[in-house]
Amino acid sequence: MKAAVLRKMQDLVIEEVPEPSSTPPGHVKVAVKAVGICGSDVHYYKEGAIGSFVVREPMILGHEVGGIIEEIGEGVDLPVGAVVALEPGIPCGKCQHCRTGEYNLCPEVRFFATPPVDGVMTGYVVHPAEYTFLADGLTPEEASLAEPMSVGVYACREASIHLGQRVAVLGAGPIGILTAMAAYAEGAIVSLFDVRKKRVEFACSLGFSAWPFRQGPDLKYDRVIDCSGNRDAIQWGQSVVRPGGKLILVGMGAKGSMLIDGLDLASRGISVQGIFRYSNTFPAAIELIRRHRGKLAAFTEKRIPLDELPTYLASNEYLGYIKTIVTVD
Ligand SMILES: [Zn+2]
Ligand SMILES: [Zn+2]
């Protein structure tokens, strides 16, 4: 089977890799159909690293996957032929984090396309059944959105967003928009902000109240969720949290750049919460995608075949789309 293998920084090739030879008990073999290109795939391709995760040996890219069950291992009760979304991180299941449900913080987690673990831009993947989720009624392309949607679902859950709260989401890229959808589903009054005019217009076209960064109504927000990782956005975001409100950090900026004013936190009773990936979110994420499939059409429209990925990433063409889906036959 073919795979998109990142040999090293800016050296991405499509090459033959061995197909999984068996499906062990408790696992499913999934025919990969659609893989969303994520910012992290682009970072590994362009820079060869994200923080302390460095590509040191060839690695298959991709972690946002929708596919079809091809084969089931012993003891698995999932239907062959069903469309599924795969949760990309497999935690150890034994440590304190795993046992208390915050398995996103498991130090032993093996996460697709995070060095040295291979990703899913390939023909087949064998995956534990408990991290495989039925996405009935969705296409594999739509199912691949369950991963980025999970980030938004988890951020909103951790931020304890309630009916009628005012929520500002900073950054109207894919994660910002999906987070805004999750906040809206919780009953929040949501505003999105971005520096890029095109993104503001896109968010408006989806029915959101969206504004150029630092503009919009003069309001304070119960929750500000930063999905940009940008220093200026976070500083401004902190200034528009109401006293007693919460600043939620989803975006990852460069080391040392995400500055928080502690005196302001203390004197206005603001709390800050960091968000790393997600846990126990896939069923909710799939349900949200089902409800918003019309609005999410733009997320699955731009598709490229696996063979074209190296030239596509090299050309920067992906920058013109909210999301690009790599299709695999
Ligand atoms: Zn992603
Ligand atoms: Zn663990």
Question: What does it look like?
Answer:
- The protein is an alpha/beta fold.
- The protein has 2 domains: 2-145 and 296-327, Quinone Oxidoreductase, Chain A, domain 1, CATH 3.90.180; 153-274, 3-Layer(aba) Sandwich (Rossmann fold), CATH 3.40.50.
- 27% of the residues lie in helices and 29% in strands.
- It has 11 helices and 20 strands.
- The protein has helices at 39-47, 96-99, 140-143, 146-158, 174-185, 197-205, 231-239, 262-268, 282-291, 297-301, 309-315, and strands spanning 2-8, 11-16, 27-36, 49-50, 53-54, 59-60, 64-72, 83-86, 89-90, 110-111, 124-128, 132-134, 166-170, 189-194, 209-212, 221-226, 241-249, 271-274, 303-305, 325-327.
- Strands 3, 7, 8, 11, 12, 19 and 20 form a 7-stranded mixed β-sheet that branches.
- Strand 17, helix 8 and strand 18 (271-274) form a beta-alpha-beta unit.
- Helix 4 (146-158) packs across helix 9 (282-291).
- The model has no long low-confidence stretch (mean pLDDT 96).
